[in-house]
Amino acid sequence: MVTLNDKYVKGFVEQEELTALKAFVEVAHQNMHSKTALGSDYLGWLDWPSKMDEAELTRIEETALQIREKANVLVVIGIGGSYLGTKAVNELLGSSFGFGETEIVYAGQNISGKYMEDLLTYLKGKNVALNVISKSGTTTEPAIAFRTLRTWMYETYGEEAKERIFATTDKTGGALRKNVDANGYVSFEIPGDVGGRYSVLTAVGLLPLAVAGVDIRALLKGAEQAEQELQNADLFSNAAYTYAAYRQILNSRGYSVEVLASFEPSMSAFHEWWKQLFGESEGKQGKGVFPASVVYSTDLHSMGQYMQNGRRMLFETMIRFTEDQQNSQIPFDENDEDGLNYLTDKTLHEVNMQALEATALAHVEGGVPVITLDVGKIDAHHVGYLTYFFMKSCAMSAYLSGVNPFDQPGVELYKQNMFQLLGKPGYEKKD
Ligand code: PA5
């Protein structure tokens, strides 16, 4: 379902380097699956697709239906792993223009006054519901947005606001849980053993995605297929592990920046999810591949120059959706003034795939190793598979570099500083 093509990376890596990692991958795999690996309290995502509770799934679908009936805009309030997965999957599966019956918009991922004012203006006169999502229930950005939007909801809908507010949070801890219990909002639980950036297949992603009209059962089925197919400890036959191994070898050879490249503009938000997944999981103890992204052809006419001729610390991972789902032909023109008639026997997809091939060839020639990941097509099943594939490869890649994939100690320092600067009680400067 995700096939790794290493034709354009082989020339940069010795076969022995891969072989040397085989035993390490096997040990990391055993530790991961026996849940004894570093950060093992957060390995719940590993078998989540196959063990997701049917009754909870049905409750999510029913709630999504109710939200769709009463709202044409759902505001998802969350930051990091609490919203990036939803945005990634929704934008990839949805239309490039407009949306279905219920639009999903986002809040709590910044503290911009302009953004909030613009959002409140946009919401005026619309039928609105909120889904506030925070595992810890204490993150400042979504908490501020929730307070602001909650106030607006009560001003707009009176007591009916209660029926329009939905929360997804930890079972017991955090200020959000207290708020939910005090007000009786309908709520969903984030499993204790699944961290934010690994949570897209839980209620965190499933509720808003179901509201957006995504087939969440197909998404989970695709992830379940990945869960089964990527259970193999062998680095050479498990594509998620081959990818992880290539990343680590390339990094050790000085290719410390990985650029995820797609030829589909609707992959933009997916890139952001992927960057958070790898950046937050691996970037610690002075280690980690820096994750970056481009969307081609757009970026061939901006970042393409750097990719071809800039500093050589880059490798590229190209996502190729192999199936032509649109079959859009390039029309024939009798006069052929633009000289494009030579393309009329081809679809846009075929031309796009040649653009990918041409780019890979050029970048390899320019000294950029290119890994290609083939994904059948853009649908819920394949996207479910792809998200699981990346989560599994990310965990393995982090283990191979010796870091815990599931913590984010580096995110704390800015918070402490901000609280101190804002005068939060308990965070006063000590001389
Ligand atoms: O991946 C993670 O754990 C983080 O990015 C969190 O999702 C993010 O910090 C938001 O945390 P919370 O859901 O607790 O508000």
Quick description:
By secondary structure, the protein is of the alpha/beta class. It contains 15 helices and 10 strands.
Describe the structure.
The model has no long low-confidence stretch (mean pLDDT 97). The chain has 15 helices and ten strands. It is globular and about 60 Å long. The protein is 46% helix and 13% strand. It starts with a strand and ends in a 9-residue tail after the last helix. It is of the alpha/beta class and 431 residues long. The strands form two sheets. The protein has a five-stranded mixed beta sheet, with helices on both faces. Strand 7 (257-262), helix 11 and strand 8 form a beta-alpha-beta unit. The structure holds 5-phosphoarabinonic acid (PA5). 5-phosphoarabinonic acid is lined by residues 79-82, 134-136, 139, 142, 195-197, 280, 408.
How many helices in DSSP terms?
Answer: 15
Helix content: 40-55%
Poorly predicted runs are none
Radius of gyration: 23 Å
What structural class do helix, strand and pairing data support? alpha/beta
Shape: globular
Largest sheet: 5 strands, mixed
What tags apply to this protein structure?
15 helices, alpha/beta, 431 residues, binds 5-phosphoarabinonic acid, globular, five-stranded parallel beta sheet, G6P_Isomerase, five-stranded mixed beta sheet, single chain
List the helices and strands and how they pair.
Elements lengths: L1 E4 L9 H19 L14 H4 L2 H17 L2 E5 L6 H10 L9 E5 L5 H11 L4 E7 L5 H18 L7 E5 L5 H9 L2 E4 L13 H10 L3 H14 L9 H14 L4 E6 L5 H15 L7 E6 L8 H6 L4 E8 L26 H18 L4 E6 L4 H21 L11 H11 L9
Parallel strand pairs: 2-3, 2-4, 4-5, 5-6, 7-8, 7-9, 9-10
Antiparallel strand pairs: 1-10
Helix pairs in contact: 1-10, 3-8, 4-8, 4-11, 9-14, 10-14, 11-14
Bound molecules: 5-phosphoarabinonic acid (PA5).
